[in-house]
Amino acid sequence: MPHKKISLIGAGQIGGSLAHLIGLKELGDVVLVDIVEGVPQGKTLDLLASRSMDGYDVQFTGSNDYEATRDSDVVIVTAGLPRKPGMSRDNLVDKNTGIMKGIAEKIRDLSPNAFVIVITNPLDAMVYVMKKITGFPKHRVVGMAGVLDSARFRAFTALELGISVEDVTAMVLGGHGDDMVPLVRYCTIAGIPITQFLSAGKIAAIVKRTQMAGGEVVNLLKTSAWVSPAAAAIEMAECYLKDKKRVLPCAAYLEGEYGIHGYYFGVPIVLGAGGVERVIELQLTDEERGELMQSFARVKEVVAAVKL
Q1: Which of 48, 186, 193, 197 could form a disulfide with 171, with the two C-beta atoms 3.0–4.6 Å apart?
Q2: What is the pTM assigned to this prediction?
Q3: 260-to-61, 122, 264, 278, 293 alpha-carbon distances in Å
Q4: What Cα–Cα distance (Å) separates residue 187 from each residue in 8, 169, 191, 234, 246?
């Protein structure tokens, strides 16, 4: 059976991490594309050399030409300017819109049947650009946000309690910004509500740290995170390639769900071989819905700044 073809647009830190994870999980053959000459070629050469030690046989190709991506099964887009200290994700909208538009045109023309995962910030606006330019159906274009944000919520909760992160379940919805909505009511420890373990003050501190986690990394590293975003996107790609039908929070195109029409927004979805197979509408309290609508207002503001 031929390997699936997975193209990674952007060979920076996230692109390199994505490629390595795809190899380790043997999800498919990798094409790494970047505008900087030598970078995708050098990274793939490095990855090829690691295969015998890591024990897998997938192929890696590095190129500056999008033609190498033709007929991809999955495309993951990381290309764009990363955040620097003092910048919000939204500060990137103008320059990254132009970058995303050009990438979307290439994907549309070369891989018309691909499943596309967008990581580039500002996420909710960039995945919107991807769908508009490709014209792909909504189930084949999705944004990576909630999987990462929920993973951060889980990590901080596990650290606070000194327990395995595997036993922590969390759900973070809304836009991929500082006003994202970690749903405390849906956070559990081995099925037990988090409120039975932590005080309201401790929980509020974890919620705040989750919302600001991306900025915390940027302030320390002077650039955006790359290992955890890559892991989150791979979790999504694996759901599609293996038809896992996981329930994950992702930026999905909404047509009435949660009262939102025509925008990408972070909500729980069923992710399988059909792509975004279903949007799950949670029963929310008035307070939770209010927070979600506040987050959506910010997403609308950023999308309004997009010039196609």
Answers
A1: 186
A2: 0.96
A3: 40, 19, 9, 15, 9
A4: 32, 5, 8, 23, 17
Which among 3, 20, 139, 176 is annotated as catalytic?
176
**∠ at Cα 246 (169, 122), nearest 5°?**
80
User: pLDDT tens digits, residue range 269-287?
Assistant: 999 999 999 999 999 999 9
Label residues 28-52 b or e (16+ Cβ within 10 Å = b): bbbbbbbeeeebbbebbeebeeeee
CA distance 125 to 212: 19
Distance CA 178, CA 282 (A): 21
| Alpha carbon separation from 265 to 123, 174, 176, 187, 298 (Å, rounded) | 9, 6, 8, 20, 11
Q: What pLDDT is recorded for position 271?
A: 98
Domain covering 5-143, topology: Rossmann fold (3.40.50)
Give exposure, 239-278, as e/b (b: 16+ Cβ within 10 Å): bbbeeeeeebbbbbbbeebbebeebbbbbbbbbbeebbeb
Q: Provide the greatest CA pair distance for the chain.
A: 55
The Cα-based distances of 205 to 42, 75, 190, 199, 208 in angstroms read 42, 36, 21, 10, 5
CB–CB of 31/9 below 8 Å? no
Q: Which residues pair with 74 in a beta bridge?
A: 6, 115
Percent of the chain with pLDDT over 70: 98
176 is catalytic: yes
pLDDT, residue 89, reads 65
Which uninterrupted H or E stretch holds 48? helix 39-54
Domain positions in the chain are 5-143
Q: How do residues 249-275 score in pLDDT, each as one tens digit? A: 999 999 999 999 999 999 999 999 999
